[in-house]
Specification:
Number of strands: 23
Largest sheet: 18 strands, mixed
Number of helices: 8
Distance between the termini: 32 Å
Radius of gyration: 24 Å
Helix content: 25-40%
Strand content: 25-35%
Shape: flat
Structural class: alpha+beta
Length: 386
């Protein structure tokens, strides 16, 4: 948990979860310097809000105001200690202040905000961004105050939206280390994995295909509607369905995109404008189709679908996978960066399942089969030869 994110939320009246409140209170009680620092930021925020609502805040003057007020109540040496102790927060807070990072009752405004890292966000078609804080329940509204949907925990629900005649797209972004669930206006349920971006319309329009756009990984339970085919667009391949359950993995850093069909039937076709042949592949339940984003070659296999959908329940499963590919999934699942200096390890094949294990425990289990050393500094893990 990052204290910077929590202070930004507090300054802009974003409710914290109980866990976050306890963490913030512990930080305040840690030292008088922390308490003074936060109090002065609150004073500065209120002053600037009254004078110019954050429109013309000078970052340097803003920080000097905080420090000059502190100097009046602190001895020189203590102030120097304070500066050293808190300077690492200054740049982030001043940036937040200088652009007017305001969220009012979770209603979209025409102001771009700075988003705390590692937060799920919802971006409207006009570019405004809403932070979907966890452990909270509230309504999603547009700039005119229309209720678009409901947010509860890590779920969004857009059923019942009655927009007519125009496609209005939103973009949902899920950072590493988190997952999210969304119910579309037609009742289609979508589970989004870590590091995914999902673009979807607020509502679908009569007599047109139901089209969404995915970068990352998602599991779809599509509401059946023969008159309106459901299409998932990814960079290398499009997936067209009527009503079915399937998993799509199409991260931009992966050469191969995969589609695993659990129930029903789907058809894959190239998303490349230069592909005039539009090669198509039709899947049956239990099929996995791989599509190469560079060569557009495709492959079809029979698989155990549970392996490819286990992430929905918080598990990650590897079956005879190369370690170089395992690293990518570990990074997304645990929100870490892994640097592998032991190149021989990349081609090693592993089979494993993890659910409640930490990333360190997961790596230790791999090291039992192929010894290696690793060390972690914050969110960066470095693997070295044994």
């Amino acid at each position: 948990m990052d204290i910077i994110d929590l202070i930004i939320k507090k300054l802009h009246n974003i409710l914290l979860s109980k866990k976050e409140e306890r963490f913030f209170a512990a930080w305040i009680e840690e030292s008088s310097q922390n308490a003074i620092f936060y109090k002065e930021l609150e004073v500065l925020k209120n002053q600037e809000s009254e004078e110019n609502p954050f429109n013309d805040v000078n970052p340097n003057l803003a920080w000097l105001k905080v420090m000059s007020k502190y100097n009046k109540i602190s001895k020189k040496n203590a102030a120097q200690t304070f500066i050293k102790h808190t300077f690492k927060y200054a740049a982030i807070f001043i940036i937040a202040l200088s652009v007017g990072y305001l969220i009012n009752n979770y209603v979209f405004k025409s102001t771009t905000i700075i988003v705390p890292k590692n937060e799920v966000t919802l971006e409207s078609e006009n570019g405004t961004i809403q932070v979907l804080s966890s452990d909270m329940i509230y309504g999603i509204k547009d700039a005119q105050g229309h209720v678009l949907g409901a947010k509860s925990g890590s779920k969004l629900d857009f059923r019942g939206v009655k927009y007519v005649g125009k496609l209005i797209y939103n973009t949902l972004k899920v950072p590493y280390g988190k997952k999210f669930e969304i119910t579309l206006s037609d009742g289609t349920l979508v589970y989004l994995n870590s590091g995914s971006t999902f673009r979807f319309p607020i509502n679908f329009i009569k007599d047109r295909s139901r089209e969404v756009f995915l970068e990352g990984e998602g599991f779809f339970e599509v509401f059946k509607d023969k008159k309106h085919p459901f299409v998932v667009n990814t960079v290398p391949v499009n997936v067209t369905v009527l009503g079915t359950k399937f998993n799509v993995s199409a991260y931009p850093e992966d050469t191969w995109a995969t589609v695993v069909l659990v129930e029903g039937s789907v058809e894959l076709s190239s998303n490349s404008p230069g592909n005039k042949k539009r090669n198509k592949i039709r899947l049956q339940p239990g099929d996995l189709a791989s599509w190469n984003s560079k060569t557009e070659n495709s492959r079809l296999f029979k698989v155990d679908t549970d392996i490819y959908t286990s992430w929905i329940e918080g598990r990650i499963v590897f079956k005879n996978q190369r370690f170089v590919n395992i690293i990518k999934k570990l990074e997304r699942h645990y929100n870490v960066k892994i640097n592998n200096n032991y190149k021989e390890l990349n081609t090693e094949l592993f089979t494993a399942t993890f659910d409640v294990e930490t990333v360190e425990e997961a790596l230790n289990s791999f090291a039992e089969n192929k010894p290696f050393h690793f060390e972690r500094k914050q969110n960066i893990i470095t693997i070295n030869t044994p």
